[in-house]
Amino acid sequence: MAKKKKIENKLSTFTSVILGIFADQPFRPKNYKQVCKIMGIKDQAGKDVVYNLLIDLKNKGLLQEVRPYSYVMGPQGMAQFGPKTKYVEGTVEMKSTGKAYVVRDDGDGEDIFIAAADTGKALHGDRVRVAMFPKRNNSKPEGEIVEVLERKHTEFVGVLSISHGYVFVRPDVEWMPVDIFVPRGDLNGAKDGMKVIVHLTDWPDGSGNPFGEIVRVLGKPGENDVEMESILAAHDYPIEFPEEVEREAAQIPIKISDTEIKKRRDFRKTFTITIDPADAKDFDDAISLQKMKNGHWEVGVHIADVSHYVQKGSAIDKEALDRGTSVYLVDRTIPMLPEKLCNNVCSLRPDEEKLTFSVVFEMDDDAKIYDKWIGKTIIKSCRRYTYEEVQTMIEGGPGDYKDEILTFHSLATKLREKRMEAGSINFHSEEVRFILDENKKPIDTYVRVQNESHELIEDFMLLANRTVAETFGQAGSKWSNYTFVYRVHDEPNPEKLNKFMLLISRLGYSMNLSNRTTLVNSYNKLFEDVEGKGEKNLIQTVALRTMAKAVYSTDNIGHYGLAFDYYTHFTSPIRRYPDLMVHRLIERYLIENQGSVNKKEYEEMCVHASEMEKQAEEMERQSIKYKQAEYLQDKIGQVFEGLVSGVSKWGLFVELKGNKCEGMVRYEDLPGDYYYLDDDNFRVIGQETGRVIQLGDEVRVVVKAVDLFKHRMDFEMLADTPKKKSPGAKSRVSRQKK
Fold this sequence. Notes:
This protein is 33% helix and 27% strand. The protein contains 19 helices and 34 strands. A seven-stranded mixed beta sheet has the order 14-21-20-17-16-15-22. A hairpin with a 5-residue loop joins strand 31 and strand 32. It is globular, with a radius of gyration of 31 Å. The N and C termini lie far apart (98 Å). The relative contact order is 0.07.
């Protein structure tokens, strides 16, 4: 009897120890061999006891079997013993070095640092559970990823490599810290060196690499179509439309019925035009103009009535919602809607009757608005203009309907002046464009600068968007408590703003942060001061990064950058799904006089649309980086002038003038000295010569190497680079002397 009791006590001790092991890491699976190793048990009798105890603890609910004979802490075990460590859930931001940060779901505190050895099986974008390490004095929070709750990416684009009988795929994305192992039976016809799409199937315990299977062979790396499709595939953006969507689109009638025309306000005999890029096919918006009897102007902003053709819940609608937006790569457009809709039925092409949703204004010569109307219309554009044609007339050249164009220009200028006076920030952006040959290889580049013809259209679109948002959101409106979709823009991030202040102060500029008005005036004055200076692009780019990202939301907080209390997107339903949502809400509330929609449903669509917009911008950036690398690929050894656009612990970033290609000059490729980084002052300093190279400095570089597949460009700085400081630095020195 005593012997039996002794054995029971021993088992009870064993049980406590085992449960303690699982309590330390409750979400990390362990089998009996791993438990025995931790406990130091080497004899077979002891291993058998542990093996049977684990099964017994599973049957009692204290442990949970996640794989055959592999366990984690079970629900009852968590309830009785509880984890000894604090656990936090969040999203992984993986770095190319293998280390990561986890952005907490609860938003409580700083991001959590994860060392490369503690990332487990987590990848970029995954939702994970983190075991927090004890916090040291003044240290940033650190932890270990113990469980992947939700895998963000399961398919990757990369190059297949077969070596010594083993097959791996090296993903294109820099944040992927490991290659994916592919069993030989899962190659799907892929050959060594090909670009492929690999689906992640498993990540066995004890394996340093996940396992995958080839689901699609893209082709030979370096071919234009292969690389562009790789960018889309890496973001899981579909190239083709499903057959059901194309069938549905094919059935949409082009002819407009007389019954439908009678329901709408008729603008077919009113002067109406479109202004778009020369290569555009999807014309979302048109503007109309006519003189009223009282001497005022009637200005109409007419937007393609996509909602008339795309019914909520249809196959086309579901696909458009999933895509969220059209994607504009360097050499192609991947539309949100099938071609029949975006380039034909809905596109406001000249000399064709089109159904539109419109905002019509009565305004005087000073663009003072006396009345407005929102509703469904029919138009017939009498002329399609390019931005270049309109700009020629604005600058004094000839053109069709010049008087009307100049009236539009005058009214838009007045609207812009009022917007700037009200506190709108005048951000300017320069976009690089490529001239491609018949094989879509870049043979030249140019920078598209926004001019007055672009601003003409922009100001009327801003007015229409703001008017729609005010109509449905403003206090006093009968719809003010209804669910609506807004385009919102939060205040600048204080930490980013302080860093920006430090940057411009080093370059000899200043800003006043005392209130919003002075801050906005400071931004606009700064942009004027840097015009024509070496640091212009740098300052404008970093200034934009200090701002929060504009997003879609059913909760209105206003638009900080535009200084609008109410703002939405109404003017591009062919290429943006939120605009289509807004059209449907206007029709529901204003025309059909129905009640509010489900706020939660629309907020989820807003969040998805914001995410897809961000993803589309990233795809566009990647296609530009690829084409820039391709443009420089045959220019190894050539000399270019550029501007220092960034400093890092690895070297200087230099942006070439004209083509805006950005590459790195590593410290070993800086001539004549050993340079060290002065991070606080955004510069590097020669140890022997004391020479300073800082942000915005003009330099001359040689193209040293181009990695087409990683979209990387390496430069070497020439010794005869002008030894001068940037204009900003000169002014700083002169002020110090004063």
